[in-house]
Structure formats: C-alpha cells, structure tokens
Amino acid sequence: MPVCRLPDQLVNRIAAGEVIERPAAVVKELVENALDANASRIEVGVEQGGRALVRVVDDGQGMDEADLALCVERHATSKLAPDADLVRIATLGFRGEALASIGAVARVSITTRTRDAATGAVLEVQAGRIAPIRPAGTTPGTRIEVRDLFFATPARLAFLRSERAETQAILDQFDRLALARPEIAFSLTVDGVERRRFEPARQAEGRLAARVAAVLGEGFLADARPVAVERDGVALEGYLGLPTEAAGGRRPFLVAVNGRPVRDRLIETALRVGYGDTLAGNRLPGAALTLRLSHERVDVNVHPTKTELRFREPDLVRSLVIGAVRRHLDGQGSLTARALGEAALARFAAGPAPQPVPERAMATGWTAPSGWDRRPASPGLKEAAAAFAYQGRLEVGAPSGAAAAASPAPPAEAHPLGAARVQLFDAYVLAETRQGFVLVDQHAAHERIVYERLKAELARGAVARQGQLVPVVVELPPHQVDLLVGAEAELARLGLLLERFGTSAVLVRESPAMLGPADLTGLVQDLAADLDEHGGAEALLRSLERVAATMACHGSVRAGRRLHLAEMDALLRQIETTPNGGTCNHGRPTWIAIDRAALDRLFGR
C-alpha cells in the first residue's frame, strides 16, 4: 500500500481514541476547558453513565463567533500562543484536541456568549461534520452538550463498562477536579438527580479544609492531619490520613499539581516510603494533597490526557513528600483512626439475652461454654514473669484499675488509653477511658513496641554482637564477595563481622546479637543481593530491619497468653509512647476506640 495522507475525519477519530477513552474523560476535558475560561461556577449533568449525555455549563468568559468556529478544529486553542514555550504551561488544556476529538465520535452542541455581547451563538458537530453557526439567546458563558458518545465508532462502545461503573468513574473524576480547585463552585447531576454540590468557603484560608470535608467526608477530615511544608520553591499542602485508616480497604487518594488532578507514581511511591512499615500490603491511607511549584519545573506535556507528569527535580519532590509524611507520623504517636471504632460498632446487633446458669447445673459440675471465663485467681507476678520469658517481656509498673479489690482505680482520664479493666479471649485488653473504652490487640501492640526498640538499636549503631562458635561459611558469586568485603567496615559497625574465604565465599565470625539463632547464610545472601542491586551499606540496615520485624512478631506477646492487670497497664503505657504505635509492623491496627456517645446510641439511650 502506498503512503497516503489520512483524511481529517479519520485523524480526529484516531485522536479521540487517545484523549476520549470513556465518558469520564469527556467530563474531565470539558470541565478543564471551563476552568481555563475563568469560570467561577461549573454545572455538570450526565445520563446513562455519560453515553447518552454529558453536559457542562459554566459562567466563564465565553467565545465569539470567530473563536467558536475554530474551537472544533484540531490543534486550535486559545491557551497557547504560536510562539509559546512548551516548558511553561499554565493552563489545564493546551493541545487543542479535545473538542475536535469529541465531535468526531459524538453529537456535540456548543452554545456560548461573551460577557459584552448582546446575543450568543450555537455550533453543532455530528461525527466530524460541522454545521453553520447560528445565533442563540443565552447567558454569558458556555454550554456544551455531548450526546450519543461513540455512536460514530460503535466498536468503541463494546469497550465501555457497565452504566454503573462509568457513572462511578465520572464521580471519581469530578471529585478530583473539585478538590483541585476549592475556590470554584461545582455541581453534578446524574440522570436528573443531584449527586454532588460543592460551594467554596467564604474565607480563603478555610477553603481547602472545607472542600476536603465536602469531597471526602467529615470523618476523613476528623482523622486526617494537616500538612503544610515548603522547600526551595516547592510547596506541599493538604491532609494525610492515619496509617490505620488504610486497614479498612481502598481509600481516596487525590493529588493535584498546580491545580491539575494527577495520578503520579513518584508522589505515590514517596508516600509509601514515608509511611514505611506502618502500612499493610499495597494499601495507602486517604490523602488529599496539593503541590505547587513554578510551571517550568514540571512537564505536563507527557501524555495526551495530561494526568502524568515529569518533574525537573524529582529528588526534591520525593524528599519533600517523604519528609512531610514522616513528620506527620512522628507527631501522631499511637493514634488510630476513629473510623475503625465506628465500623466495629456498626457490626453490633441486638440479640437474645444470655440465659442464666441454673444453680443445680453449677452444683453438679456444669461445663462452661466456649468464651465463658471463670478463671481462677491470677498467679503472682513472679510466676508470670517466668512464663513471660518465652513470649516477650513487659516492664511492669505500678498496677492500676482493679489489680487489687481494695485499691481504688485511678481516674481513667489519667492516660490516653485509659486504665486496663479486663482481658478478653486471652487476646485483647479492654481499657476504660473518660470518653469510652479502648480495645487493644495485645500481640499487635507488643509487636510494635519490640520492633521500635530493635530499630532504635540499629539507628544508634550500637548493635551488640555475638561470636559464632563455629564460623559460618557462605558461598557467593565472586563479584558479590567483593561487594561484601568492600563494605566490611560498615558491616562490622552494624554488627556483622565477616572476611573473605577464598574467591567465592565469605566467613561470618560475628553477627548481630538481636538476630539470635538466625539463618546467617540466608541473611548474608540477601544482603549481598541488596548490595548488588542498590549498593551502599545501608542495605544491611534494611535487611536487619526486615529480620527485626520477624523477630518482633515471634518475640512478642501472643494471642492466648494470659496477662495480669499490671501487665496490661504496662502494655498500655508503653504503646502510648511508642512511635507509630497505632499499627503493628504489618500495618494492622493495634487498638480501636469506641466513645460513650456511640454506645449510648447503640443502646438507644
């Protein structure tokens, strides 16, 4: 086939496949056009998941007839001058492809009027065919209606998801746009029912918080913590959720850069690094962040949909985000998301009252059902300490609560996690606070305590070493042996003393005492692989922290271990002052709180 120039109509349809992949993309492009037109109020309406209709009405500056005729042509835009510098993009849309692409695959009607014009004008496009402009009576601004999306390319309809899924995608996209521009009023109507209405707060300093509460909910704002940092002309502002909020599953994660909603891998990765070992699996807590920097320091011309960015100084952005998250965590101590307690309380349901135990059954050797606890008097703390040597250790301070029947309980409000009252199922500690009560997972809480102590020992560089009675020989590829020997001094400072043993092995003479009878061969092999991949002796610290996490899990109080009141109180006091104490090192919550008001509602008081 000879080389030929494709007709404009086909070119537009190809471009539509890149820019307009689903109805949510139409909403995004049209709303961004309204924002670039300096609109202060934007109304969106959709029907049948956006397939039947997408309508966007704004009160922006509008267009005259000349601009209206050009706006549906490819690469025609008012947002970029012919001699513009593509490195300094200050608008949301600038490619000039959106309206041409939408018009190539749908039926489009554009009604517009400038503020100083007596009348407006309307232009219609159907599958790329442009009708003559007609006069129209309308208010200042622009109204765009997109009907029968992809009717000109039926094959594209087969790739759309269900109406419900497409509607949800539109809602998600709308929320991102509304959060990125808290000074703008937004509304969204779905099939004639208003689903969203966001009005800007009157005071500029409170607009972001008000919009976060409106978009993500008052519950998120109550648990989240504000972030405001700036370094070298890059400013980060917004709200970060607590790590325990991620335990509930998928959470809203919204990021805007210079007012543009984006899905940026660099920022998301920096958040994961910042939260570190407080998260479970791939989850991230909710976040609503805005990043501002000069336009020449970020390239938005990376992808047709402009949702991906390239930063000129990625290390600066990464370190700013990581530092902000770590400072956010450092100030939170053992806080946990109150949403966990609300969710737990919501699962409670009224049930039949428990039947009293017949006195005759008690007299004849009645057997308690599962969960019934008639434990004997607790053994002394000396015996408990002896048993505890096998399952972690808690420093026991002065007892509180009901440690002795004659001792008055201290006021519950004396401590953030209150006073221990009882152990449930040999796994959970129930504590009373002034506001309600707290349930503590004894294993998860002690696991975090032990883990943070091991990490602190590593960070101080005061890692105790233990000699090997018989040195351990670890065989490795020769180049990895060279890497380990080259980092010999740093490794020794971190507790691992080794030396070359031939050309393809090392000899381990001393190891970190905290590892105990660890698999030294596996540790050295993993360490060599880390050094080979990343380089630097800090790889040992990462390896040891991973081993420390395993040690903390196996060396902490297990579920099924019966505690005394003094030990329970010791656990509460320690987790209160432990960094990242709201989660264990697997990302699970260590405790949840339920307030008195919620209990009163549960029982209809």
In short, what is this structure?
By secondary structure, this protein is an alpha+beta fold.
Q: How does this model look, in words?
A:
By secondary structure, the protein is α+β, with helices and mostly antiparallel strands. It folds into three domains: 8-198, 2-Layer Sandwich (Heat Shock Protein 90); 204-332, 2-Layer Sandwich (Ribosomal Protein S5, domain 2), CATH 3.30.230; 333-347 and 378-605, 2-Layer Sandwich (Ribosomal Protein S8, Chain: A, domain 1). 35% of the residues lie in helices and 21% in strands. The protein has 20 helices and 23 strands. The strands form five sheets. Strands 1, 2, 3, 4, 5, 6, 7, 8 and 9 form a nine-stranded mixed β-sheet that branches. It has a five-stranded mixed β-sheet with strand order 10-11-14-12-13, sandwiched between helices. Strands 17-18-19-23 form a four-stranded antiparallel β-sheet. Helix 1 (8-19) packs across helix 4 (98-105), helix 2 packs parallel to helix 6 and helix 9 (265-275) packs parallel to helix 10. The longest helix has 19 residues, at 442-460. 40% of the residues are buried.
* Number of separate strands: 23
- Beta-strand content estimate: 15-25%
CATH fourth-tier homologous superfamily of the largest domain: MutL, C-terminal domain, regulatory subdomain
Low-confidence stretches: 360-393, 396-407
Quickly count the domains. Answer: 3
Helical run tally: 20
- Cα-based radius of gyration, to the nearest Å: 31 Å
* Percent range of helical residues: 25-40%
Largest sheet: 9 strands, mixed
Please report the first level of CATH classification, the CATH class of the largest domain. Answer: Alpha Beta
**Gap between N and C termini:** 81 Å
